[in-house]
Amino acid sequence: MLDSDTYGAKWDNTYLWFKPDDMETIYISDSGDPETAEPIPNDSDYLIEWDKKGEVYNLRITSYYQDIDFAWFTGYDAQSSSEEIPWVHDGNSIQLQSAKLLPLEDGAYQISISDDLEN
CA torsion, points 57, 63, 69, 75, in degrees to nearest 10? Predict the structure, then answer.
């Protein structure tokens, strides 16, 4: 069982939402609840880049102030809950190129990023 006290001390989690048809503004929250998300300009604390050609999309997230040790993208059509998303790490950026794409949830995709505070 996961010890929530230790888990909270180990990970710094941030939740970001973006709408592929409006990349000027992204939404940020410390919880996974979209109701608590605040709008911020894209390319302020985080830069989300999105491009889709045919079935293949390219998603890149850059964090200017937080390390990205783990990330999840709600648009990635994983075959199972244990499938890892094949992110390519490059400094404080991660990138995903894939044709596995789920429909938008409430008009937006969510990306959760985690910084392992113990590394």
Answer: -30
